[in-house]
């Protein structure tokens, strides 16, 4: 089977022959609602069948998630408000510790120098303002477990799952930083025009702290001089736009450098709709 093939009909035909990899891909598509109607129960059934067929990645996920409490996953914990303006929420205990460890382990082999948006072209490029590393989980790297985390984030933010960009896991060694920046895309810059037209604005950002055995490394906001560092499994969620849809100029923030140890954090940008072609 083509390793890049995510056509539901092709995968369904392969799954009927007992192909565990095809079942796993179908499980991901069902979990995300890509090419098929989103169906979490079908996704989990396909994951179990894939694991039973001997497909190692599915067996690993089943061991990680079993027993799967779907209702709990789909009901995020209550948030704690850290700031009204900008709107910033902390959500303790957002992701189980063992899932944090699993996501970190998957990201460790995939990290590359993190990029920033080029203001002129909208393309990613390296820049001194950002010295950390990132692992990007596009469709070929997606799993049912990560789809559960993404669903939980979308529900906590009140935004649609199809509006989520591909998830990143960020790594900061001692001294590495993502200096002061904003996550919204400036509509006044021509380089962002196509992206905004196709996908809309980045309405919110969510971070999930995958470890806490480091010093320093706070997420800092200029507004109110807020410094925050969550415990392992906690989430930090903030709005990049105001209730009227305008960008929130007060959301300038930075990922401060760890002074000892290393920091791992899941980063999720959320838009308000699915991208158009």
From TrEMBL:
Top-level lineage group: Bacteria
Under Enzyme Commission nomenclature, its number is 1.14.11.2
Keyword line:
Dioxygenase, Endoplasmic reticulum, Glycoprotein, Iron, Metal-binding, Oxidoreductase, Vitamin C
Give the GO molecular function terms: iron ion binding; L-ascorbic acid binding; procollagen-proline 4-dioxygenase activity
The record places domain Fe2OG dioxygenase at 163-272
Q: Which cofactor does it need?
A: L-ascorbate
Its EC top class is oxidoreductase
InterPro entries from the xrefs? Oxoglu/Fe-dep_dioxygenase_dom (IPR005123), P4HA-like (IPR045054), Pro_4_hyd_alph (IPR006620), Pro_4_hyd_alph_FE2OG_OXY (IPR044862), Sel1-like (IPR006597), TPR-like_helical_dom_sf (IPR011990)
Q: What is this protein called?
A: Prolyl 4-hydroxylase
């Amino acid at each position: 089977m083509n390793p890049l093939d995510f056509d539901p009909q092709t995968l369904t035909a392969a799954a009927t022959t007992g192909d565990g990899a095809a079942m796993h891909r179908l499980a991901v598509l069902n979990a995300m609602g890509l090419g098929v109607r989103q169906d979490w129960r079908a996704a989990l059934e396909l994951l179990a069948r894939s694991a039973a067929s001997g497909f190692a990645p599915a067996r690993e996920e089943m061991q990680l998630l079993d027993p799967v409490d779907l209702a709990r996953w789909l009901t995020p914990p209550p948030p704690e408000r850290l700031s009204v303006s900008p709107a910033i929420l902390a959500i303790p205990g957002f992701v189980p510790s063992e899932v944090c460890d699993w996501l970190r382990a998957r990201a460790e082999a995939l990290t590359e120098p993190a990029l920033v948006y080029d203001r002129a072209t909208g393309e990613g490029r390296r820049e001194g303002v950002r010295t950390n590393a990132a692992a990007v989980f596009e469709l070929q790297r997606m799993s049912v477990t990560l789809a559960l985390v993404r669903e939980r984030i979308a529900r906590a933010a009140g935004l649609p799952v199809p509006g989520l960009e591909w998830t990143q896991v960020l790594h900061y060694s001692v001294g590495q930083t993502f200096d002061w920046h904003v996550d919204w895309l400036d509509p006044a810059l021509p380089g962002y025009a196509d992206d905004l037209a196709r996908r809309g604005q980045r309405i919110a950002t969510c971070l999930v702290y995958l470890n806490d055995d480091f010093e320093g490394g706070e997420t800092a906001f200029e507004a109110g001089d807020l410094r925050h560092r969550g415990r392992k499994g906690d989430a930090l969620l903030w709005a990049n736009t105001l209730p009227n849809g305008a960008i929130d100029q007060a959301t300038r923030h930075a990922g401060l450098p760890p002074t000892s140890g290393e920091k791992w954090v899941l980063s999720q940008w959320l838009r308000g709709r699915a991208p158009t072609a």
